[in-house]
Each structure stands twice: as structure tokens, then as C-alpha cells.
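Structure, all two chains, one model.
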Amino acid sequence: MGRRVLITGLGTFWGGRLAQALERDPDVDVVIGLDTEEPKVRLERTEYVRSDENYSILSRIVSATKVDTIVHTFLIVDSTQTSGRRLHEVNVIGTMNLFAAASAAGSTVRSVVVKSAALVYGATPRDPVWFSEGTARKSTPRTGIERSLIEVEGYVRDFAVDNPHVEVTLLRYCNVLGPQLTTPFSKALRLPAVPSVLGFDPRFQLVHEDDVVRSLLFCIGEGRSGIYNVAGDGLLPWSEIAHICGRRTVPLPFVGTNLAAEPLRRIGVDIPPELLDLLRYGRGIDNRRLKEAGFAYRYTSAGAVQAFIEAVRLRKTVGSRTPEYRYEDDVEAFFRHSPAVVREGEAT
Amino acid sequence: MARPTQERTGKALVPVAVPPVADEQPVLDDPRHGDVDEWGRSERMRQIARTIYAPVYEKWFRVEWENLDNIPAEGGALLVANHAAALPSDAPAIMHGIETEMGRPVYGLADHYFKSLPVIGTLWARNGGVVAQPDNAYRLLREQGQLALVFPEGTKGPAKSFQERYRLRRFGRGGFVEIAMRAGVPIIPIAVVGAEESMPTLARVPALAKLLGTPYFPITANMLAFGPLGAALYFPSKFKLRVLEPVTFDVPPDRERYSRSRIMDESEAIRQSIQEALFDMLQQRRSVWFG
């Protein structure tokens, strides 16, 4: 019998990409996706379920569909996307409901993969150059997003302790770059001149969006419980990242940086406070644990920057390569469930 | 994901040659544009710094080394020295000397205070400065076999006034011994004579230090002699550096923790050996300026 996988956050970039990848896997029988929004990518056999943002419906879905794997990609790691209140609802309450459903009596869930972020380590001058999975955070969390992710990780740990029969994998990602993804980080790099903080040239680690999806797939149901950092090889100075992108840096003052970033926010480049911290001190996370488990990256940090900027250049000339997709309820239902559609594997 | 080990052709199952895993991973494209390493050090930047610093090293301080061959030509080692002068002049001299004489990079472990300073923090990192932090030191020494320089006195060394020159302060809590034990590398003590006189502290102004957020704020003899220039201009004292015998610890590396009393004993012994070497060198010194 194949796997039955439930993805939270199907409407997000990662949920959609992951569902596409899982659909191609013949070992996966059923893919179910939850979100408050409709999927933004074309999906063949994934079943989309609309839910509220904190997943109160989740325990019913788990018991009705008998899923064995939950991939939690709905965690918000970019504070510019949403308000503080919704952040708390989605991240903390959502995760709580998810684990409540997964540990309910008679639950068939045997594997949970959570997509978290290296934000939980913070970025201060007293940090080590490399954070390993076991390194404790050196500073008290300053921003709402860091606090909520730390709370989420607390739930993950509790769940793993209480449910030793479930494989729990917690993945911490560094900043992601890639041809398709848009984040405050990639927006900053698309500006004609890249903002920096005067006198600081911190070092960054990056991971390519394809490696993110591949690492999620790698961890699904392969008995890899534990915490893993996911990041490409190499720490690059911010100036070098800008140089690969063919951009100049424009320094923001080192006092009142937040205030100086305000005009950028006006033009739609919202630099969140956690990114301002990174622009001073940078952060490296040790990726050896996942590599030792057998995962092979396709891109280094510098390779991810290169791939990103090549896609930006192409898009500037020819526009988007993938046509716009819109989810239509009845059309999707027709292709999935109508008796008129001849499906693969069925007698004609 | 599971690899198919057998393939169906017709009716029989034919084994498929499974390529060996992991061993030959393809070399990833790594389009770097600079030479800044994972610690933030840039060899190109060091070369420029060494070119600028060479006259100071050779003509101004006229640095002389004794027993430089006590520093291993390869493998990790933790260099430990006494720390002096209001604006420490010993770290650049030690790093420059070893890098030019031995061709080995030296990473200087220092307080995270530097990293929080704009411009200075970046220059410091590009020239081999690394935040003194156990994980950093372990990785440098154990995994990469590099030379790391540390001043266990910390800011207590340079903060002391001229009357207390060449009297070593407490060596912290012995963290440097613990990290050397864990990393399984020798500690190489270095005694530095000359740095104390290059920028003597006459008085300290704690109120200004508090205002500026610096660890201390000294009034130096250089400031009195050269005015504002004295903030960065050293007196041309003669530098002599003596490398002492490497200290090894007969303990297995990679332990979670080591005996606290043993660490304190070793730390104190190293402090003593540097202190005695300093007294010996000072006995033989005829002149502050000519050695």
C-alpha cells in the first residue's frame, strides 16, 4: 500500500511545489492539501480542502482519510506577509491543532515533517559562525516571527517525546533563493542597488528552492526523525552576493537603520527586522547532518544566487515562462471525480 | 527513496547494476566572486594589510622572535599570549610574524564586541578575526587544523595601567584550556615584551567608556605626546617574542566536559610559565627602545 500524505499550506509556494513532486511519485497513493487559499499551481490528483487558518477541521480530515504522513509547510517564516495576530493563529495555534489531530486516539499518522526556519537561531554578534542543530540560541528572541517559531518548535519536541512511534522531522531552512520564489530577500536583490548596512558586510548562507523541495521529499517517511539544518555549502559576504547579481550596494546608516529602511517599505521592498539583523551579523548553519543522512545538494550558496539572477535576467526580457494558473473548483472536481474522465490504470 | 535493484524484462527478473551511493557526488558549480572564507578572512585582504604593516613590523617595532620553531608547521594549535597596550599592538605583530615566517594563516579569537562595530568589525573579520566562542574555536582547531591566537586575559590585559605592566591578569575561567583539550591540540604560550611600552595607559575614564560603550577608555602617554594622533600612533618600543614549549594534555579529545580543577591547574601553570618567561626577558632587556 502506498503512502497517504497530507500537506498543510497547499496554497503556499512550498505546499504547491511539494504536491506536484509527490504526485509524480508512484509510491504515494493519496495527496491531500489544506489551505485557506486555493492552490496556485496546476495539480493532477491532489485533493484540495479549504480550511480556516488554524486547522480546526484537521482532526476530522485525518480520521476520515487515514493519512500516514503530514507535511507541515504552512508555517509563516516571512513576517512581511501577515499581521502579528494572524502569525500567531497560523503558526502556533495551527501547529497545536495539527499535533492534536496527529496524536488523537486511533490516529494513523506515522510521520510528521515540519518546515521551520533558521530564524530560530537569531543573529547577534555573540553567535558562533556555524550553528549546529544542537546549538542553543544565544539571544532572547526579538521579533514576533522568531518567538512564534520557537513556540512551534516547542510543540514539535513535545509531540516527538509523547509519540515515540511517530517519525518527527524538523527542518530548519536558511534564506531561500530561486527562479520562482519571491521573498523580502529576493526583492532586495532585484533592486537596482542592493541595500546594506554601512560598515557591515555579513556572510549569508543560501539554499536553492529546488533543494528545499528535494529535502522535504528526502525526509518524508524515510525514518529520518530529528532536527536538520538545510542550507547550501558556503558563506558568502553580502557584497559578493550583490556582485554575483551585478548590483551595487547602497548602505543604510548603522544607527536608525530601521527608520532608514522606511522609504524602501514604501516602494514595496519590505525589509523585516529579522533581515536587518542578518544584514549586520549574518548567520551560518551547519548542513553536515543532513548530508551525512545521504542528502546531496544540487546548488551551493553561490550557485543558488547565480540561478536566481539568471532567472531574473530571463524574466526581464521574455516575461514569465510559466502561464498563469487559476484554480476553478468545478473544473478540478470534474477531472478528478467525473465518471466521464478516463483515468490511467482503469479499463477503457 | 528506494532504488530499484531489479528490472522486469519479459518475464525474468534481471538485476540492475546499482551505481555506488554518495562516494562520487558531482562537484557543484560554485561561482564565487571573492576569496572570503567561512570565517570571514580574506587572503587578498591579508596580503594588502601585511604590505602596509610590514614597515611597522620591521622598522618601527623591529620584532624579534625566539624559538619560532616551537609552533608546528601543520595541524591545529592554540597560541596563547600576554595582552598589552591600550590599543593592543601584540595581536597584529604575532599574526604578521607567523604568517610571513611560516606561511600559515592565523585566526585571532577576540571578544564579540569587535563584530558589533561597523567598518572595524568588517576589517577585523577580513583580517582573520573570529569571535572567541567555543564552537568556533573547536571547528578551527579540531576540524580544520588551523592556528588560533587567543589572549586569555581578555580586556583586563590592555585595560591595566602602566604601573602594572608585565603582570599577568587572571586567565579568565580557563576556557582556552578546555577547548584545547576538547580539540586535542597543543597550547603554545608566547611571551611578548615591548607591547606594554608601545601605548602605556596612564589613567582610565570609566564615565567616557560607559558613554561610548567601549570596554574601557584610556588616557595614554601617546595622547599626551602626540595629541589626537596618539590615539593610534605607537611609541617605537623594541618587540621581543619568545615562543615557549608546546603544552599538551594527556586527555582524550571530544569529551563533553573535563575536570574543572585540572583545567584551572593547567591554566594557572601556563600563566605562570608566561609570567616567568616575561621576568626572564625583562632581566635581560637593557633598553625599552633597543632591546
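DSSP finds 13 helices and 15 strands in chain A.
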